[in-house]
Input
Amino acid sequence: MSNPSAARPGHLRDPILLLALGFGSGLARRGPGTAGTAVGVGLYLLIAPLPVAAMVAITVAVVAIGIPLCGHAARRLGVHDDPAIVWDEIAGYLVTMLLLPVEAHWIVAGFVLFRILDIVKPWPIGWLDRRVGGGTGIMVDDILAGAFACLLLHLVRLGIS
Output
């Protein structure tokens, strides 16, 4: 399935769209959300060595910036939650990984679990996704999917510790 996006490579010259489109990852013809989440993994690996407070602050900033950023991108592209807008996946993955060990199996598990929850959108994720508009609506389902994934991974971690 190809990406039915209104976004084009030329949009990457706009700094806001460059961010919202995940530095171009959202232009992937297949799986732009997965490509955007991969950018989230890269960002996570960059901030993982920082103190916990800094990681949390950066995650909060990425989420907070995402609301107006995604709203602007949707207006600029003329499509609410265009598939190429992947800042929400980047933010959702960072939420997923909050306070988890920086180890390959947790990074992969976080990636897989976040993508499943983001795609399937179990209640209340899907319910909110259908009812909230604007930049908040673009972000809310991914942040909630990330929070659920984070909670589930911490429960697994407690179970195997």
Summary: The longest helix spans residues 134-160.
